[in-house]
Amino acid sequence: MAVRKENHGDRLQARIIAFWGGLSLTRQFILIGFAVVFLGMTVIGHWIATRIAAEVQHGDSVATALFVDSFMAPHLQALARGEPLPETNAAALDRLLQRDAVRSRIVAVTIRLPDGTVAYSTRKDLIGRTFELDEPTREAFRGDVIAGFEVPQDGGLPLLETHSPVWSESEPRIVAVAEIYENAGMLFDDLARARTDAWLITGIVALLMAMALYGVVARGSRTIAAQRAALAGQVEALSEALWTNEELRERIEQSARRAADCNERFLRRLADGLRDGPAQLVGLALLRLDGWKPPSGSLEATDRSAVRSALAAVLEDVRGICGDLHMPEIDGLSLREAVAFTILDHEHRTGAPVNVQAMDLPAAVPPLVKVCLCRFLKEGLNGTVRIGAGTSPRLSVRHEAGVVIAEVADGETGRDRSPERITGRLSLTGLSDRIEGLGGTMDIIHRPGEVRRLAARLPYRRMDRA
């Protein structure tokens, strides 16, 4: 059950976040701004109304205290001497409270002694009786004037109850406390009007502030919306351009792969044509020359020897060209088998062993990658033989993150090799173009005094997806 409640709470929170995120900046400001303004208006209005009521109570209590000191205290000085209130003084208080100006405001008056005895009251049945002092009366005996509203629960007349101390005229001593109950109906009406005015003014000011801020935010929101729309259009245009560029790149790569495949087939046909055509004809001419034996020391014998030497050189050159152009038959081999076959073919042709330092290959790669890698290894190994003076080359092949990384290094250091000596018969520039056409890179690392290294990186996963 707890899990269900938690999931329900998470869904509700997610809905609220989604709803809030879907609102515009203007609507978010309206909700938050008006909530803050309403809260501020409520706090300020309540504080102003409370302060008005407190100030009204304070002013009325001060007026009541002046009334007690000025008009009632002279008739109560007998209490300072510990004597009962004389009848003449009580009658004078009755006449004072019966005046129209006083009677319209004051509803009841009670004079209480420090022990709680009622010395005088407009309710004659309370005179002489003793009651426990309440907290406002105790505070009045300490010299404070206490005032507070009293609203009857039966909906009767609201009263303002004031507890004012009565001081002795002969010494600074409180002899009694006057509890005066005033008609607070008009005062309540005045407070209600003051509260209404305070709320109304606060609301108008808050509304004007919210409208002014809304104008600023609405303008900014329109600007942001326009910029967002323009940005979305630019993003869409850039996305379309990116898609177009990606499509063009894919077409270029496909064209490069087709060109590499056509070039490979062309090289094979050229090698086969040279081997089956000029090489066989030159070989046949050599056989005919071997069968023709002119007299020794004659001019024909000299010409025969020169022609045979020239034909043998031509045949050697043609075979060398065929060896460079023609790849071993690796079509039905895996990548590991094709690399191993290329290494064995090189060792068989040159007699120079190859130091294989690493052989970590993927299980399967596209045929073009396999052929290009073997071309690279063959050219690199041939280059080490042509310029390495019989040293054993070092070879490393591995793969990582969908890329085959191959590196061929010379077996000796300290020799200065010029680019002309490095390139060999099948130009490394063409091989580099072939590798780059498949999306890879080739680097020739050659510094004086260091081992020359030929490195290539061939991606194969992207070609699989293509």
TrEMBL record:
<dbReference type="InterPro" id="IPR050482">
    <property type="entry name" value="Sensor_HK_TwoCompSys"/>
</dbReference>
<feature type="transmembrane region" description="Helical">
    <location>
        <begin position="198"/>
        <end position="217"/>
    </location>
</feature>
<keyword id="KW-0418">Kinase</keyword>
<protein>
    <submittedName>
        <fullName>Two-component sensor histidine kinase protein</fullName>
        <ecNumber>2.7.3.-</ecNumber>
    </submittedName>
</protein>
<dbReference type="GO" id="GO:0000160">
    <property type="term" value="P:phosphorelay signal transduction system"/>
</dbReference>
<keyword id="KW-0175">Coiled coil</keyword>
<dbReference type="InterPro" id="IPR036890">
    <property type="entry name" value="HATPase_C_sf"/>
</dbReference>
<keyword id="KW-0472">Membrane</keyword>
<keyword id="KW-0812">Transmembrane</keyword>
<keyword id="KW-0614">Plasmid</keyword>
<dbReference type="GO" id="GO:0016301">
    <property type="term" value="F:kinase activity"/>
</dbReference>
<keyword id="KW-0902">Two-component regulatory system</keyword>
<keyword id="KW-1133">Transmembrane helix</keyword>
<keyword id="KW-0808">Transferase</keyword>
<feature type="coiled-coil region">
    <location>
        <begin position="238"/>
        <end position="265"/>
    </location>
</feature>
